[in-house]
Amino acid sequence: xxxxxxxxxxxxxxxxxxxxxxxxxxxxxxxxxxxxxxxxxxxxxxxxxxxxxxxxxxxxxxxxxxxxxxxxxxxxxxxxxxxxxxxxxxxxxxxxxxxxxxxxxxxxxxxxxxxxxxxxxxxxxxx
Length: 127
Hints:
Elements: E1 2-6, E2 9-11, E3 17-24, E4 31-38, E5 45-51, E6 56-59, E7 67-72, E8 77-82, E9 91-99, H1 105-111, E10 116-117, E11 121-125
Parallel strand pairs: 2-11
Antiparallel strand pairs: 1-3, 3-8, 4-5, 4-9, 5-6, 7-8, 9-10, 9-11
């Protein structure tokens, strides 16, 4: 069971990035995927969680309108499209998986629960 993130990098404030989370060894049909980030000196923060099977998506308030989560079950991949990036969005972004029967996507994000996670990809927003 593996989750591999990609797409991070250095971007100027106001810029955009798209992160990918490729899952292997299990199907997105039966797992919810959450995006989280960890900034230096700060606690881990949820960004959003998606159930690709029914299309249910939850976003935290700080990213609503700027970030979009989508999934491609054929590719077993979930994406995080980020725009209007701010310096405070800097951090290590990782995706995580939880079987769909455990809880809702909102609870997955709010409670920060997951069974598996990837290594993460660094996003740096700086001029």
